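Q: What structure does this chain adopt?
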Amino acid sequence: MANFYSVLRDGIQKAVYVLIDKPIALAVKIGLTPNGITTLGLLGNILAAGLFVLATLYPEHQYAFIGWGGATILLSSIMDMVDGRMARTCDLCSTFGAFYDSVLDRYCELLTLAGIVYYFFAVGEEWMALVTLLSLIGSIMVSYVRARAEGLGIECKVGLMQRPERVVLTCLGAVLCGALAPVVPFHPLWLLVTPQIIIAVLANITAFHRILHVGKQCS
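A:
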């Protein structure tokens, strides 16, 4: 099952690369750099967080704002693939670029999930806000455990709920919430919170799985 999942994930990644290679070549011609693309991704996630906040200010359009927030996260996450692909294929890799990309990835995740937490609190869904906060904690810890392990010279990519999976689930929940709110026979916010429940459970399991993995490597 793990091998099938890995093959599927790699296949999707390769298909996306086929779609973005020509735009990347054009971006390089007009002077864009991987660090510039990374910065655009951050700005997109700031916008997404802002859309979740706006959803609290305009209740009559809240689900539309949530849907556009999800779409904005999705577009911004494509930037995260573009910057790495550009750096590798155009010989623009740098130590600072790798560091900058990693740091801004954490900011992006913190900002968007914080926006969702704020939205849930503002509309009185405290338990949904708490679940999303647990999702945020798990997400950050998955990345932090890997960074600490690699700082010790130990490869640590094990576990299911890595960043691409988390981003896809968050985007999917927000987009579906925005698109299906008028027609679903249940509270539309279940579409937004269900992916956060999944992430909250699996991301924290992944973090502890990585801790155990590092422990085995050190023993």
